[in-house]
């Protein structure tokens, strides 16, 4: 922290004014955090050991004055609900989850009314009158029940307020506004009973009416002193928002007619280096902030004099990853949000899985595979669940929905932990909470005490464990917490408050904090992030039933006052700083985007003579190439593996076309044998649909192998087609859902494709085609021996269908995708494997090469039947001699044509087997 800070000045004043009465002084600060820094400042002023003064926050002080304890927001909501039930007729009572939506907003308004000491009856009846005026045009007889209920709600607001106020007072508890109103009522008693020497209020800015009344009473009674921290630049400028509140107090408090106003500083106009830096996105700001910290260290600045102020809390984690290794000690005063707490995420997944299971079917308790896998693959669960076999079975068998019994049946012997996770949840809230508590305790037992990471995991577990225990207490005392829907609603609200606190030494190292934590503190070097509208300042939010113009009239704070508070915090951070870095996001669109903050523009326009202000934009370094294609050299091991493929299983047509498409993919799949992980196919993939159609056609044609087909044979196949497609679905898609949604559509498409092919087959036979099916889904192989190859290479693959049609051998390849006739026309043999567009031609010619020894001198043709282009029928491979449009198409595959193809095929295989040609990635 800087020398001559506000706290140093305050310490000096206190020690010089009350050297012998320090223990009889009570110092009231805006927050608890400043207490440690004030004690340190006091220590610097003292030479002997003394009892420290009492230092408390304003909220604790007001609670002491009122004699009423503050109640937590969830407890308050429950108390309000019990009051609401007592005032509302049975048939008009809303369930808790509906009540909570408007109850929270109303409590916020009650809080504001009390903090600003307004007459609640006046304010709430004012709101009722406004609603009446909105509906004045409706005659009494034309008002619907809905409008009547709506107006009655506004009529009941004063009743709700009075009943809740009375109810809470009986319990000696209350929300903040109630505590403040009671403190004002009790201030005379407190003042008379006050035994200490002096109360000192320090570092305040915006006071609500209750705080103002309390402080002024104590000032008038000579029992208190107040020290402000305001710069004359902000105080003397009637339009400057940073001085809005203190300017108002200086003018309106009659105490300042006789007493001096303390303190007005003159630090903001002094020499400062201010750098405004714009960069894209949140991560960009984090990276630059890390570089700035490193730069400040390099220039010899102490990190304990440096504050890193985060304009939004979700920036904390990227910021921590961006800090340089040279940052030894660190003090984080922000809590880590529960949103990303792994233990909280697990509880959330359990809620989702079980509540959805109940909603689907209470009797069979139907689970959804993705929700089950989300739980089983959670990092806290996976090492201890013993469910790898279960995950494997779900993925391999395409099980999308299954009952709880089926889950336990597949798992076999379930561990106590597994049982706790998946055993049925009933609507008994206490048993569910008890189960969650047991799960967290078991997870704690699985962890050791030595591992740093496990210590952090335990801290996360503990924060959620406290939330669950709090909910157990609520369930014991509030019968309205009686079903899972209400429990989940409350859980989400409670867990928002459950931050995980970081441990650190507050007085040493880099200070990482939020905007509010910076109050009263001064630093020499300040880095502030997220200087965008909507973040800093936070912008307009109207979460209230009281309209803006009514708030203005009644003196309640609006977004204008909220912006003024942010303005004070911002300028206070800058006031005594020497090196200031202000970072903002240059992106104007997107989730975390927004315009540049008005505070930056204000700094530029109102620049002081001694301010060295500089604005700059940092863009991420862009390399000359966005991506370098991967290059893998062929080692001896790779060459051994390639020989193993070439002389073992052989190169299939799909392996060869896979190499042409992308050599790296060939390397992964064929050389390294990396297969895609089994995953549940919720919607049938295209390749799965193809497998089903191929399988159905194979089974339908199989009984007629080796004989000429008749119309009656085709009719028989058509009768069996639907059942066969269903059988193939079950065989291939296993336990996947096929009776609804996209899969039902895919099932119908498969049936239609099969029927279309059979219909076309029948028509051609009727027209005189003589068709004999010779092979179905059969594997053929052939050795390719040639002096141009390093060794003989096997070519092998599966051919969908081979038939003898009208005295010719026809090789047929089924395609579920769309293929056009021009995809199968070749104009030149040169560079055949170089173009991926030729992959289907290469495939067909490879099939023809493999089957050549079996043709017995018969004319051969090869082609494709495309199910998405059935009207074209069989499309054969053709070679076009010459470039003229009238050049003839040759579709018969003879020895000369295969010799030309063999030359191209050998060239492709030589490239694959050449040790000096690396596998090079092809980019789309």
Architecture blueprint of SSEs:
Elements: H1 6-17, E1 25-29, H2 34-45, E2 54-57, H3 58-66, E3 69-70, H4 73-87, H5 96-115, H6 120-134, H7 145-170, E4 173-174, H8 176-185, H9 187-193, E5 198-202, H10 209-220, E6 224-227, E7 230-231, H11 232-236, H12 244-252, E8 264-265, E9 272-279, H13 281-298, E10 306-310, H14 316-322, E11 330-332, H15 342-360, E12 366-368, H16 369-376, H17 382-385, H18 388-396, E13 401-403, H19 404-411, H20 416-422, H21 429-446, H22 452-477, H23 484-496, E14 510-514, E15 525-528, H24 548-554, H25 559-575, E16 579-585, H26 598-605, E17 611-617, E18 631-632, H27 636-647, H28 653-661, H29 663-671, H30 686-701, H31 711-733, H32 741-766, E19 771-784, E20 793-805, E21 808-815, E22 825-826, H33 839-851, E23 860-866, E24 874-876, E25 878-880, E26 889-890, H34 895-913, E27 919-920
Helix pairs in contact: 1-2, 3-8, 4-7, 5-8, 6-7, 8-10, 13-14, 15-16, 21-22, 22-23, 28-29, 28-33, 30-31, 30-32, 31-32, 33-34
